[in-house]
Amino acid sequence: MQELRKRVVIGSMVVSAIVALAAIADIALGVPFAGSQTMTMDIIFIICAAIVGYLCWDALKDMG
Questions:
Q1: How far is 61 from 30, CA to CA, in rounded Å?
Q2: How far is C-alpha 37 from the chain's CA centre?
């Protein structure tokens, strides 16, 4: 059961990294979304992905 919990947390960390990379790519290149038209949303995505990444890292530390 402990291994499943770690996999879920690591999966969440990977998904948050993908979201952050997609938002950064959108700011820099205008791909995969609409580019500069959604700058506010991209910044919000990056902040939320950072929060989820931190929470995942903290949960992994607590699992030991």
A1: 36
A2: 21
Query: Do residues 45 and 33 make contact, with C-beta atoms less than 8 angstroms apart?
Result: no
For residues 33 and 26, the answer to whether their CB atoms sit within 8 Å is: yes
pLDDT of the chain along its 64 residues, tens only?
889 999 999 999 999 999 999 999 999 888 887 766 788 999 999 999 999 999 999 999 999 7
Burial (0-12, 13-18, 19+ Cβ within 10 Å), 45: buried
Q: State how far the Cα of 22 lies from the Cα of 32, in Å rounded to an integer.
A: 7
Task: Please report, as a single letter, which amino acid is at residue 27.
Answer: I
